[in-house]
């Protein structure tokens, strides 16, 4: 139980310090290597023509956004 409590307190302190750092600097946490952007890839799927599953997912998201905009109060 003591080990669990120590690990929990350590993680709690870690996240608290990270949140204070974010509030002070207003800069998001990012990886050190730059990820796909460092390789010149703009997105995870770098194909010219997306697959049918991706097209369906994008159409569903577009319909959701249109529905939200249609019923927006402000």
What are the defining features of this structure?
58% helix; mainly alpha; 74 residues
Overall tally of domains: 1
Helix content: 55-70%
Counting copies of identical and different chains, the oligomeric state is single chain
Order of helices and strands: HH
Residue share in β-strands: under 5%
N-C termini distance: 51 Å
Q: Rg, please?
A: 21 Å
Low-confidence parts: none
Q: What is the typical, i.e. mean, pLDDT?
A: 82
Output the structural class: mainly alpha
- Let me know the largest β-sheet: none
Q: Report the principal-axis shape.
A: extended
Q: What is the β-strand count? A: 0
- Number of helical stretches of at least 4 residues: 2
3D architecture notes:
The protein has one domain. By secondary structure, the protein is mainly alpha-helical. The protein has 2 helices and no strands. The model has no long low-confidence stretch (mean pLDDT 82). The longest helix is centred in the first third of the chain and has 24 residues. It comes from Shewanella mangrovi. InterPro entries: NqrM (IPR007495). This is (Na+)-NQR maturation NqrM.
């Amino acid at each position: 139980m003591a080990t669990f409590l120590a690990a929990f307190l350590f993680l709690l302190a870690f996240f608290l310090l990270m949140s204070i750092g974010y509030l002070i600097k207003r800069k998001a946490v990012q990886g050190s290597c730059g990820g796909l952007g460092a390789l010149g890839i703009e997105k995870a799927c770098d194909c010219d023509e997306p697959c049918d599953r991706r097209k369906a997912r994008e159409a569903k998201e577009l319909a959701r956004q249109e529905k939200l905009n249609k019923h927006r109060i402000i």
